[in-house]
Amino acid sequence: MVKKIGNYELESKIGEGNYGIVYLGKNSNTKEVVAGKAIPMKNPNSKLLKQMETEIKVLKSSECPYIIKLHDVLKTQNNIYLIMEFCGGGDLENYVKSHGKVEEQIACRWLSQLLESCIYLQEKGIMHRDIKLANILLTSKDDQNSDIRVADFGFARFLNENSFAATQLGTPLFMAPEIFNNEHYSYKADVWSLGVLTYEILTGGPVFICRTLAQLKKLQQEQIIFPEHLSENAKSLIRNMLTYDHNTRPSFQQLRGHAFFRPIYNINEIPADSIAASPQVHMDDAEDNFYEVLGNKSTNEIKEEVEEEKYYPDEQSVVKNEIQLGVLDTKTMDLDCKVEHINDIINQFAKVKKLVVKNPVIKFCNEKIVGIFQEAERIVCDYSLTRSKDLLFSELYEKIQSMLIESNDAVERIKKKVDYVKFFLEVEGEVKKVEKDLDGVKKALNLLEIAVERPECPEVLKQQQHDMLVLYKDLIRREYY
After folding, report:
1. CA distance linking residue 85 with residue 71, whole number of Å
2. CA–CA separation, 371 and 357 (whole Å)
3. How far apart are the first and last CA of the chain?
4. Cα separation of 395 and 387, whole Å?
5. DSSP labels for 111-131?
6. Which of 116, 114, 144 is nearest to 132 (CA)?
7. Lowest mean pLDDT among 69-73, 155-159, 428-432
8. How far apart are CA 273 and CA 280, in angstroms?
9. Which of 49, 85, 112, 301 gives 20 to 30 Å between its CA and that of 355?
């Protein structure tokens, strides 16, 4: 499939980022090979918009040679396209999977480049917050001459030198202990993530082998086990970066002076005016709970591209592997259905302003998500799953973890005790007013589900639920949806 977008021709799909599909393409005029990330805008949500705007702002302002370059931002009727530098070596995650551990000489060069990019970001007041193998790209397949490029800035956060962040974002195996412990954190959390990444590329395997979040939190406090082939300098570097107490964990600038990087650097002291030497003062990070446009331009101001997307037949057929359903697959699908149901409720009532309705919905969703997470933990233990053993379940497990974190935060923001008597009255009134179409009935049933689960729920609401279920089944049978 070929897409003609302005001066660019996007051809085959080469991957997926946090919120879009990535295509291989070229500039029609210069013939330069590019990568184009297509972000669908038919039904954008605030979370997607925030991630996209953050990435655009970071990449537009970046002049670091080790951060992926953004060439252009184009808008069509259906998508926004980020036209970026193409990295022919793929990402580090796939490199390690196919090649195993990286030689220390090569790793030293790549890690020094990654270190420089992190220092550059810190000097610009930016935390990446999702440093992991999959977000580090290689410029070519020739590892002796390849350089790294840092990508995927959707989770990035803008801080000043004395501020902390508070939101739990990132990939669990790479997340610092202070994030799991609900502490405010700073750039030192990215240092921890870099330590996890360093261990994995130098050994070819994860530093923490675990099946549950509880096990991961325990392992983070224990002594690190190293394979014999690692040099003492490499072990020392990893130990320093994986220091449990973030107050004693070294900064990026201090890591420059580590013996592991001696072939690259000749720096022994940190300048007194360096950000790394500045005190870190506790600050609440309340703005992380709200959507904000972080780009220099809003989504509507991004350059409108007048050319239509042109599609040409793709000569290569896409082969889909047939899903083999077993017990684990069935449990995964059942869990996924529960997750989607709660997501529907969250999205349905996201814009509700009345606290008498909003707060019971938040508490109900939190209780359900906790139950779903506990069920997922049991599955992990029963089947001895790891992140690489079952990809489908692993992705769902991470989704549930993210939902739990967001839900716990939402519950903590509830200031007053939930008044269920007023909630029941509000539900009764809302159900009487709903449109008798499928969407209206679904909304009514979701409200009634929340109410009926309460032991003190009045009989009138139970009768309303029965009537709505009859109507719902009738609408489906008559194909009114």
Report:
1. 7
2. 22
3. 33
4. 8
5. HHHHHHHHHHHHHTTEE----
6. 114
7. 155-159
8. 14
9. 49
pLDDT of residue 240: 94
Enumerate the domain spans of the chain. 2-86, 92-282, 327-477
Contact (CB, 8 A) for 29 and 18:
no
Active site residues: 130
d(CA 353, CA 351) in angstroms, rounded, equals 6
Where is the binding site, in residues?
42
For 460, which DSSP code? H
The CATH code for residues 92-282 is 1.10.510.10
Residue positions forming the annotated binding site for ATP? 42
Fold annotation for 2-86: Phosphorylase Kinase; domain 1 (3.30.200)
Helix (H) or strand (E) holding 107: helix 104-123
Q: How far apart are CA 215 and CA 361, in angstroms?
A: 31
pLDDT tens for each residue of 172-226: 677 777 776 666 667 788 889 899 999 999 999 888 876 666 777 888 889 999 9
* The amino acid at 59: L
- DSSP count for the chain of H helices, then E strands: 14, 11
Q: What is the mean pLDDT of the chain?
A: 77
| Of the candidate ranges 77-81, 270-274, 370-374, the one whose mean pLDDT is the lowest | 270-274
Percent share of the chain, pLDDT over 90: 28
**Can you tell me whether residue 418 is helix, strand or coil?**
coil
- Residue 272 pLDDT exceeds 50: no
Q: What share of the chain is helix, strand, coil (3-state, %, to 5)?
A: 45, 10, 40
- Residue 300, pLDDT above cutoff 60: no
Spatial contact of 114 and 133, defined as CB atoms under 8 Å apart: no
